[in-house]
Amino acid sequence: MSNHYDGATRAPENKSLNRPAIGEVSAAFSEFMESFEEFKSANDRRLAELESRSGSDAVTEEKVRRINDALDTQKRALDELTLARARPALAGQEERGGPQSPFAREHKAGFEGYMRAGADYGLRALEAKALSVGSNPDGGYLVPEETETAIDGLLRKASPIRALATVRKISGNSYKKPFATSGTATGWVAETGARAQTDTPTLAELDFPAMELYAMPSATQALLDDAAVDTEAWLAEEVQAAFAEQESTAFVSGDGVNKPKGFLDYTTVANASWSWGNVGYVASGAAGAFAASDPGDTLIDLIYSLRQAYRGNAHWVLNRNVQAEIRKFKDADGNYLWQPGLQAGQPASLLGYPVSESEDMPDIAADSLSIAFADFRHAYLIVDRLGVRVLRDPYTAKPYVLFYTTKRVGGGIQNFEAIKLMKFATS
Hints:
Blueprint: H1 22-51, H2 58-85, H3 102-117, H4 121-127, E1 141-142, H5 145-158, H6 160-164, E2 166-170, E3 174-182, E4 202-209, E5 211-215, E6 218-220, H7 221-225, H8 231-253, E7 268-270, E8 279-283, E9 285-286, E10 289-290, H9 296-305, H10 308-311, E11 315-318, H11 320-326, E12 338-339, E13 349-350, E14 353-357, E15 369-374, H12 376-379, E16 380-385, E17 389-393, E18 400-413, E19 419-423
Parallel strand pairs: 2-16, 7-8, 8-19, 11-14
Antiparallel strand pairs: 1-17, 3-4, 5-18, 6-18, 9-10, 11-15, 12-13, 13-14, 15-19, 16-18, 17-18
Helix pairs in contact: 1-2, 3-4, 5-8
């Protein structure tokens, strides 16, 4: 992925310094809540018309659809403002009032010289002091620790599954995790009674290899010569956008070939027939749709298909189109099943559990797996190999300077009990 910037026309913003004001986020949230109240009023009218003999009026249906679309647009804008507001600063610890090691200062200064002019003598000098900087013959130099931390922080905000899953830092090429699929047998016994020999627990080994993920943002040399441009902030922003897009797709639907294995790519079975190594699903009751009557009941069934130990930290994961459909559902008492967050930055909830939007989840279709309900902290594991590496390339795309940036990341299900899906089918 390559993005070109012309330093003579537009410099990349230092977005870490241009965060939206709190009032701007609050105003967007208030507008969203007003639209939701208008949506509920219009949808109530639609439902009342459906219950009458005349059926739903086309004007009312169109109004509900239009307001629902507006809610999605406003929610997207609100999420972007909240993300920008939460963006971590790239300033060094020294600038934030804390101490910064001499090595960190030298690394930061050397990396800036490499970014702007390709001058790597500062980084080469550091190689004599530590082996952690990396070397150009090996494929680039490692970014300073604070920049890597900022990239990881941005990815957690921008990638829905990364924000929910367990993330492990590794130094090797893969992470192997033993897992007990059956526990040691136990039982009650009298104080002097004979103890029967217990069964040996069954162990499985899960392997999570780290695959290479790359981005290649570009800029003109004139832009890099501009001292007012924070090159590290620019790199972090560009890399975040590229990495988050690729990661989000892989964590949901990746096939495990040169990328993480997404939770939708595993073998799925009806939850009544669930076994370790498969992902259980609950059927919606209709092919490519929710059941015509009491559609919210299958959502409740999906909640209780998950063991109680995992429900406390469970999240819904679905895309905006599916959420827009669910937003219309009510319970038997007339309460909406979907509710917005109580304040800006808080997720919406569905039947009391938080909702996380992922545009990589499929739309509703025949046999689609469009809703996940899981304790992702237990269910999904992401492994990050330490270090983000940058190779400066001023030759391939003259007059642009390319920054071939790589990191190694892997992922997959680590606990098949902690995740359930909804399949839009009759069984």
